[in-house]
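Quality-control log, excerpt.
Job 1 of 2 completed; input and output follow.
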Amino acid sequence: MLTVTPIPISIDIADVEINGTILKRKATLFTMTYNQSAKYLVLNWSVSFFADSLGFYGRSLSEIIPSYSHESIADNNTFVNPATGQILIADSTGHYSINYMGQYDWFNMMAETQPLQIHDMIRQYGMLVTNWEK
């Protein structure tokens, strides 16, 4: 029997400062729901804290600071650049300066038409998340 060691989907996210102490954080994928009927993709992440060791990840602080869950949702209420998947922000009149499409439709198009490394795609999507608070 072939044995493969699973590689967790994990990304480094922005540090936080609490009472002058810098804490490093990582987000690790917990679950993914790809609902084609409702047209959304939900990624549930577990966010963990680590000591800052001169800008590098030190020891886990899980015994002191519990991890928490964070949900990111890709649906068609968010619009993206069809060529790159980059999230677009409307101008002051509510318009976009380029052609756009719904974020779920973009993920669906990519999954249908491109040879993908899914774990890399999930990591890239996670890196676009700007708010990692509870």
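Job 2 of 2 completed; input and output follow.
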Amino acid sequence: MEIKFFKKEKVFKKGGIKLKPDIYWGIALLLTVLVVLFSLVFGLLLFFQVNKEVTLTVEESNKSEMVNKERLDKVLNYFVEREKRSTEILNSTSPIVDPSL
């Protein structure tokens, strides 16, 4: 006597919930193109708006107050002293003898 148990047949179907990547890639591409176009238009409008504005000029005031001759001479003397010191260092001999020579 053979006992037959109920066996559920396996059904292999193509199906189920599938996503179509072509649609999502198309949406991503469309959104990217729209963002680029929006940025381009916004940049151009901003450029034309800034380009039309009047530039402010600085009034000619007392320029002698802006540059003090004594301070300028002090800075120039500082750089002259640095140059002299640099040439002294370059022209001086090294006190350490290199044994590899």
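Post-run check on job 2. The first helix runs from residue 21 to 52.
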